[in-house]
Design goal:
Helix content: 25-40%
CATH architecture of the largest domain: Sandwich
Strand order of the largest sheet: 1-2-3-7-6
Number of helices: 2
Shape: rod-shaped
Largest sheet: 5 strands, antiparallel
CATH superfamily of the largest domain: Immunoglobulins
CATH topology of the largest domain: Immunoglobulin-like
Number of strands: 10
Structural class: alpha+beta
């Protein structure tokens, strides 16, 4: 659990000061948010905007009885989202405050920096290749070595056959030239 110092940020009317405190980063970000409200709304909502301007589901805040509305918001990821408050009156249109980042409302910036650096460290700690992948890699290496060996043997055999054909041709030329000296073995010029 992280208990952080509250920072109050004044908002425009009908909203007073707002603050947020991160309470946990286990399995995402859990933070408590509160806002002072002037008047008697039917409800006060907190609306969040995440990465890529995606709107998060609104969360209803509870009346604390002293003009302050507060609630707890749970996010699936640790992200410095922007939040705004919506004042819903008994009648008439709703009023929405300007958007502010959680760090503007008092959540410690280090939470987001530590989470991003710990994510990159955990990715670096994981092996690049799984044990099963390593096993397949060794098998592929062995198959490649066997294939290269077969190609080398085929090439050597082709050279020897070619040399053997040259020797036979030389022997036939000697026999055709009549270079036989009466012995049983032909002479070969190499």
């Amino acid at each position: 659990m992280l208990a952080l110092l509250l920072v109050l940020l004044p908002l425009s009317s009908p909203f007073g000061e707002a603050s947020a405190t991160a309470t946990s980063t286990d399995g995402g970000l859990r933070f408590e948010v509160s806002v002072e409200v002037q008047g008697s709304p039917v409800a006060v909502l907190v609306r969040g905007i995440g990465a890529g301007a995606s709107e998060l589901p609104p969360v209803a805040l509870g009346d604390q009885g002293d003009g302050t509305w507060a609630g707890i918001v749970q996010l699936p990821v640790v992200e410095n989202i922007r939040v705004g408050f919506e004042f819903i009156p008994v009648s008439g249109p709703a009023t929405v405050s300007e958007l502010h980042a959680l760090t503007d409302l008092g959540v410690d910036r280090a939470i987001f920096e530590n989470k991003s650096s710990s994510t990159s460290q955990s990715e670096e700690d994981e092996p690049l290749v799984s044990p099963e992948g390593r096993r397949w890699g060794w098998m592929a290496l062995a198959a490649g070595a066997a294939a290269l060996t077969l190609i080398a043997l085929w090439a050597i055999g082709s050279v020897r056959r070619a040399e053997g054909d040259e020797i036979v041709e030389s022997v036939e030329r000697v026999d055709d030239d009549g270079g036989d000296d009466g012995g049983d073995e032909p002479t070969v010029d190499i």
